[in-house]
Specification:
Blueprint (H helix, E strand, L loop, with lengths): L8 E6 L11 H6 L7 E3 L5 E3 L4 E6 L1
Length: about 60
């Protein structure tokens, strides 16, 4: 939860063919993005997003 604001941000990746699940952290969404073909973590731990992938955020 964001202190003082009363809401939390969730993250998911969307590809041209699939929508990922909502996650509570960007790191978790990035780590699991390979499941829908949205991207991958390189050997240094940097997230590489495939062309056509969009990061979606929502407040809950």
């Amino acid at each position: 939860m964001n202190p003082g604001f009363g809401f939390m941000i969730q993250y998911r990746f969307i590809t041209p063919n699939r929508r990922g699940k909502w996650y509570r952290s960007l790191e978790e969404a990035q780590r699991l993005a390979f499941r829908i073909g949205a991207g991958y973590l390189d050997p240094l731990g940097q997230f590489i997003m495939y062309r056509g992938t969009v990061l979606e955020l929502r407040e809950v």
